[in-house]
Amino acid sequence: MAATAMNTFFLVRHGQDEDNARLFINGRRDTELTELGRQQAAEVAAKLPPVGIATVYASPLRRSKQTAQIIATQLGIPEIRVDPDLIERDYGSLTGVPASDIPRIASRVLVVDRFRYVIEAPGVESYPDLWARAGRVLRRIRTEPSQTSVLIVAHNEINKMIRANFYNTPWEQELQLPPLDYCQVLALNGTGGELQ
User: CATH for 3-188?
Assistant: First the structure.
């Protein structure tokens, strides 16, 4: 189905959580938002259009569901759909360790805008697999009936791979773009772009 079947995909990274605040790699650890993370979620809701978003999708992890619930409540959207494929990248051996340990554990890293993308490390989900998973999510949401604009609340790397699929670009090209900040919004439509 063509991208024009919907008006816009709004992609939002979750707010800061407890592992983020401690500079730990959380991966699929299920940590809560911090107070700052809750504030970030409330602030981003004000940047989104007050009408037009039909559905909110979220990763199954608490930090994303909490962010999505705060936004949905402010926008008056009654239901959040949890999609297992929106879960954070599996960080394998790096899960729960300080980010400063990445050079010690990972065998291949790409640094872009001070963010370290782990290309290879024991047990880490590969970028080709992550890109394919993001494509499944995008195709599934596009086939939902009566969709207009949708909001997806997930994680930095899965959101970036959804954007890559939306514009049909390879994962290698997507990694050259800066990482997403907490509660940053990407607006994907016919021309692309980002809400400021």
Answer: 3.40.50.1240
